[in-house]
Amino acid sequence: MSGRVAIVGHGKSMQESGLGGEIDGFERIVRMKQGWQLTQTNSKDYGIRLDILCSTLKTWRPYWKIPIREYWGYQNFPGQDAALSKIREHFGSIKVETADATIKHWLGIYRGLADIRGGWERASDGMVKEGDEPWFSTGMAAIVMAGQILRPAEIVLFGFDHLATGKREDFKNIFRPKDHVYPRHAWNVENRMLSLIEAHYGVRIESKPIERSAAPGDRDETLRAVSA
């Protein structure tokens, strides 16, 4: 069990935030995908420690060469775990966590709250997208995995601008701003899920530099929606 866990995103609010020192003071630090690069290029805002890296199992390949302590990989559609033994072999002494049952559980809640039925049609050589993204963000995966694996007393989200506010805005990828269309996650639904995660794991979730917001009574409405 950990006391305080920092999960570091890359929302615009992190730029010029000067939060690097505070982040490095947490007991455990989780970063997402290319976010590890920011420890090398902007430690003043993002910190420098590399504890845990989280990504989909589809994108694991670049990360076994990075000096991290743990890798958290999750599948957002069936089949991504086919090479799990190979993944573990590449990471060697670096601990690999998948938390498959946890991801499946919370993904079901996300889809239920978002009222997603289908949304993607699998073609023989790819996928055709329609409507909302049927998988939550890597940030949300990191949150539920932190709750399950680390059982912390507090999780602080850094740079989770859209999830913290629940605004249905397009997210811009700061690593590939020109040629990449970020998935259309239901940020309002992910925001509502935070209260469920708090209740389930007995953890407090805060957000910086943008404070986490929720409509009055949102927690009760979310609980009713899930139990209905």
Descriptive notes:
With 228 residues, this protein is α/β, with parallel strands linked by helices. The chain has a single domain (4-227), classed as sialyltransferase cstii, chain A, CATH 3.90.1480. It has nine helices and nine strands. The protein has helices at residues 20-24, 37-41, 43-46, 84-91, 100-114, 138-149, 161-165, 187-201, 218-227, and strands spanning 4-8, 28-32, 52-56, 70-74, 95-97, 120-123, 126-129, 154-158, 204-208. The strands form two sheets. A seven-stranded parallel beta sheet has the order 5-4-3-2-1-8-9, sandwiched between helices. A two-stranded antiparallel sheet has the order 6-7. Strand 4 (70-74), helix 4 and strand 5 (95-97) form a beta-alpha-beta unit. Helix 8 crosses helix 9 (218-227). It is globular, with a radius of gyration of 17 Å. The two termini are 32 Å apart.
Give the SSE map.
Elements: E1 4-8, H1 20-24, E2 28-32, H2 37-41, H3 43-46, E3 52-56, E4 70-74, H4 84-91, E5 95-97, H5 100-114, E6 120-123, E7 126-129, H6 138-149, E8 154-158, H7 161-165, H8 187-201, E9 204-208, H9 218-227
Parallel strand pairs: 1-2, 1-8, 2-3, 3-4, 4-5, 8-9
Antiparallel strand pairs: 6-7
Helix pairs in contact: 8-9
